[in-house]
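agent> Task received from the user: take the single chain below, predict its 3D structure, and emit structure tokens. No templates, no multimer pairing.
agent> Plan: (1) validate residues, (2) run structure prediction, (3) serialize to tokens, (4) report one or two observations.
agent> Step 1 OK, no nonstandard residues flagged.
tool_call: predict_structure(input=
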Amino acid sequence: MTDKELEAYQKDKGKKYFSVLNSMLDSTLRGLGIGGAAVSVGKNFLLDIYERSNRKRPEYVDSVWEFTKLSPPIYSKISKLKNAAWNFDNKKRRKMMTTEGFALTNPAYEAGAKVITAVTNVPLDRVLNKFNNIQGSLDEDNDMWQRIAMLGGWPEWQLKTSKQKLVDQEKIYEQEPNKYNAWEQVSILKQYKLKKYELDKLKNEDDRVKKILELQKSKNKVFKPLDSDKPWEIKMREKMKKEGKTDEEIKEAIKNKKEKNKIRKQLIGF
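)
tool_result: status=success, residues=270
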């Protein structure tokens, strides 16, 4: 383990210890009545403000939601409505709503169930979660202890390891290439030895997805996108993000590189 990895591990470990101690303190304060609950909420509000101050986009307005914890029933209802709205706010989840159809994995069901639960107190979201738990417990790809835990009520996403989640994602992407970005779809098609003129005809995403599914069936091979095919802009953005650069700095750097490439082409022709 390198010094940088060790530092990150110790930092993460410290956060977990702090979270446990903070939860224990909250339980003690809430046991003292309304006064203790008010102190707990105020403390967590200030901690949230401090944590957000280290982010590139703090969005301090979201810290105000901490005050709703003074009344757990109100906080529960607002949280459910926020989670339901998040499904529509997230681009990937919105796309899944149109592609998943009537499957229980469709985020539209989750969003609708949370809204109904928040408004009517009918625990429809719990019924949906129980269906998902039963489905997960019947999945032979899961370990026995995970299947037992799912039947006990634990959500699948909390039990699966990062490696299992990656394998699951790869399986979904194999069946639904529309979940890949444009450059990833092109990278897959290149591995099927498609010529440039053939790729040029596949400008539309639906055409690329249809072609990938056809080739998977006819060639009996499934390819993943190659990192070497990743556009330089994405590579540059990822590298600068790791270096802690701001969005404005990244945008300016990409703009400057584009300008340099434009001048170079004008001077030397490539």
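agent> Step 4: summary for the user.
The CA atoms of residues 204 and 261 lie 27 Å apart.
agent> Done.
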